[in-house]
Each structure stands twice: as structure tokens, then as C-alpha cells.
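I'm stuck. Protein, please.
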Amino acid sequence: MEQQAGFQDQIAKLIDSGCDKIFSEQVSATDMTARKEWASMMKGLKSGDVVTITKIDRAARSIADMVGITKALAEIGASIKILDMNIDTTTPTGALMLNIFSSVAQFEKDMMLERQRVGIAAAKLADKGKPLAERTYKGAAPTARAKAGEVMALLADGTRTKAQVAKSLNIGVASLYRILKDAK
């Protein structure tokens, strides 16, 4: 619900800023190959176009990503505008500010991940010897094993290989074999 409200808010801000065409998708910016709307937008850009986004993290998750995006846009002759930072890369100052803010965003992400690693290590140390139910840190939920029923059903029809089943369910082949081992 909260994500949907945030998504609608971003679209409203783009409309308010005068965008005449909006490309929207709700996928992670970390996997650019999964971003079909982004790819469609990039294909349709021409010199002088301005790609407007609400926040820097709507386009990129790292400095390298942002540099790649701004380079690709520059090669087309397009620029980027980031509403919440009032950045417009059509000006030298805007390009400089984008690089500075990208660096700060990367630093913040790196610091958050470092704090997370330290917290997990401390929790694991405190949990040593405790039964799973009493542990503070339980780790990520096993997603592949939750798909055990689907794995078994797809393998039962005999029309797909194990690798094809794993790929269709977006799990690793090793996870598929663990599911089969658990089923015995």
C-alpha cells in the first residue's frame, strides 16, 4: 500500500513538472535488463530530450550506474533532470551537482551496508548456541524451498529438464536438487 502511494506520488510530480510522456515500472533499478520501460524510453530519445525523474535512486543504485546513464544520454544529446534535487544536466553546474550527489548517495549506501554487516555479525555472535526459535538473526527466508510444490508439479509432467524448471521458477539448480533431496 505504502509503495503504491509512493509510486502514484512520483507520477503526480512528473505530471506537475510538465512531462508529456511518462514511462513507469515497478522493478529494481539494480537490474537494468529487467527495466523494459527504461529501455523503451532510451530507444525513443532524441537530441534535446530531457529525462525527468523524481529522485536519483529511481534511475540508478550506484555512481557507476549514474555515470553510465548520463553518458548514454549525452551520446544521444539528451539530458537528465532530477526533481527533488533541482538538478538539470543541461548546465555544467547541474552536471557537477549530479556527480556530487551521486557520490554522496553511493557513500550513504555503502555506510548502511557496513552497519548492516556489523549488526548481523553481532547478532550471529550473540545467537551462538541458541536454538533457531530463540535467535535474533534468522537470516533471509528460504525462497526456493517455498516453491517446492511448483518444482514437484513441473517435474512430474516430464516435459522439462531440471534446469528448465529451475529457470522457469527463478531458482538455482542447486536449490532444485535440495528440494528433491528433502522430498525423499
Residues 58 and 79 are 15 Å apart (CA to CA). The longest strand covers residues 50-53. The chain has seven helices and three strands.
